[in-house]
Amino acid sequence: MATTLTTTSSDPYLDLVQSFPLRPIRTRIAHQRAKDMLRSLVGKRGSAAQDYKAVLVSLIADYERSANLRLNTSKVTAREIVLHLLAERDMSVNGLSKELEISQSSLSDMLNGRRDWSKSAIIRISNYFGLQPAIFLR
Fold this sequence. Notes:
Blueprint: H1 12-19, H2 28-40, H3 47-66, H4 78-88, H5 93-100, H6 104-111, H7 119-129
């Protein structure tokens, strides 16, 4: 079931909540609908969308933890994770480098394996995406 956004008020956050209320996720169906809603917000900018996505991601993560839904990421590299997160946010390497105040060439070199991850890049990327720094050390 696709989730669609409709604007009915002058408050974008309230519009999002009305289209998909933020409440605890308790079923597989609600979990799927929450993920569909999150996908519909990819590329949406603005504080209302960012705040809504942050809460929705937390609700999805809470459900996945409680349902023991875990992905085996032991064979996924830090590069793959960062590139996935960039694509999910419709963000470029250049955009991330500006956000994190890391030179674009250094970040590109780290992502392409031409240089090791720097400590400052690990810390900044981990904090930005909410990742465990250990993924960069595998």
